Description:
- The chain is of the alpha+beta class.
- The protein is built from 2 helices and 11 strands, in the order ββββαβββββαββ.
- The protein is elongated and about 65 Å long.
Amino acid sequence: xxxxxxxxxxxxxxxxxxxxxxxxxxxxxxxxxxxxxxxxxxxxxxxxxxxxxxxxxxxxxxxxxxxxxxxxxxxxxxxxxxxxxxxxxxxxxxxxxxxxxxxxxxxxxxxxxxxxxxxxxxxxxxxxxxxxxxxxxxxxxxxxxxxxxxxxxxxxxxxxxxxxx
Length: 165
Ligand SMILES: Nc1nc2c(c(=O)[nH]1)N=C([C@H](O)[C@H](O)COP(=O)(O)OP(=O)(O)OP(=O)(O)O)CN2
């Protein structure tokens, strides 16, 4: 017996890249130096076809991802839910502290992300959540799976899949 076809759309573009600085902690108490990457983003949506024969309009997906990428471009990414990195907004500045280290940035240069660490995985999750708010607001949308991929360095991709309830 033939199975019903499954459909996905996938968008990746040369301009879906953001340059941003970050530092993460790993293995407990090791904290990286501030450094930057050119982070590449791709998205895949799965679901049934709509009346156009689309899973989701490529153009709408591309443009929405571009908005998120633009918001992250040329920024410092700071985690607001890290157990050991404290991030405080004061006047027009942001101060981050970890043990005896302290970084101070202009507020407008920073993006404060509600994540526990600015790993590629958790950045992918956050981007997926941004996308879900837009997809979820479309009454006609029947997307059942959102997959966001983030490349931190050449060939090093983190992938986050979010099931749409
Ligand atoms: N699964 C993950 N592994 C690692 C992550 C991550 O987000 N998810 N992140 C890091 C670090 O942020 C590290 O800075 C990655 O940068 P990269 O440039 O790839 O690492 P190197 O220090 O080896 O840099 P080179 O320029 O390639 O020498 C680590 N792991």
